[in-house]
Amino acid sequence: MNGGEQYSLDMALLKIREEKRKRKMRTERAAILFVVWLMVFRVCGIMRVDGNSMRPACHPGDIVFFLRILPDGVGYGDAVILKDASGEYLIKRIAGLPGDVMEVDREGHLTRNGAKVQETDVIFGLSETGDSVDYPYTVPEESYFFLGDNRPVSLDSRMLGAAGREEIKGKVIWAAGAGRWNKKTGKR
């Protein structure tokens, strides 16, 4: 083999290696894009806040990020995304778990299982719509009692009753623009 043939062979091998490298990079990029797509559309979600019912924790225009998959379920104080009967998405806070006995007074103060719940960062006042549930209210199995932080304007379990587990679409993990929530857990 002379020098020209060797050069041609080396160039052909180099071209093959380069094509393999490019193919590997395309595969890696596709895998990364798939994982990002999976995270954004299947595991996580993004939602813009439209109303005032979660003030002071969350304001209109804030963006919330939430987990669609709830490995640990939800607990007291967790901010969640709910889908109501009309198909509207709501951001509310879990106030009662299955079996809890709930009472909410006219100004929005919460009593759970006979004990007054001390809540901070909640706006209390007379509800603009009035309650439609009778107290004491026992949260049904597989259901949750939810309240907004701005009690006078919030449409929540006081009017709608408890939400079934299937109505909870995610748990808020971070709120952008709010600066008022613990960014990690959505809890106060």
TrEMBL record:
Compartments where located: Cell membrane; Membrane
Lineage of the species this protein comes from: Bacteria, Bacillati, Bacillota, Clostridia, Lachnospirales
Catalytic activity: Cleavage of hydrophobic, N-terminal signal or leader sequences from secreted and periplasmic proteins
Entry EC number(s): 3.4.21.89
Organism this protein belongs to: Roseburia inulinivorans
TM ranges: 30-49
GO CC annotations, alphabetized: plasma membrane
GO biological process: signal peptide processing
Stated name of the protein: Signal peptidase I
Domain (Peptidase S26): residue spans on this chain: 32-173
Keywords: Hydrolase, Membrane, Protease, Transmembrane, Transmembrane helix
Gene3D superfamilies referenced in this protein's UniProt entry, alphabetically: Umud Fragment, subunit A
Gene Ontology MF, one: serine-type endopeptidase activity
Keyword flag Signal: no
Record's bilayer topology term: Single-pass type II membrane protein
